[in-house]
Amino acid sequence: MTRLIIILPCFNEAESLEKTVETVDGLIQELIDKKLVTHDSYALYVDDGSTDETWALILRFSQSSSRVQGIRLSSNAGHQLALAAGMQEANGKCDACVSIDADLQQDPKAIEQFLSRMRDGAEVVYGVRQDRSTDGFFKYSLANVFYFLARHIGVKLVRGHADYRLLSAKALSIACRFAESDPFYRGIIPLIGLRSDIVEFEVKPREFGVSKYSFSKMVRLALTGITSFSIIPLRLIGALGVLVLFVSLLLTFYVLLVRLFTDSAVPGWASIVVPIYMLSGIQMISLSVIGEYVGRIFLEVKGRPPFVVWEKTYD
Ligand code: UDP
Ligand code: MG
Question: Which CATH number, 3.10.290.10, 1.10.3720.10, 3.30.565.10, 3.90.550.10, labels domain 4-229+307-312?
Answer without folding.
Answer: 3.90.550.10
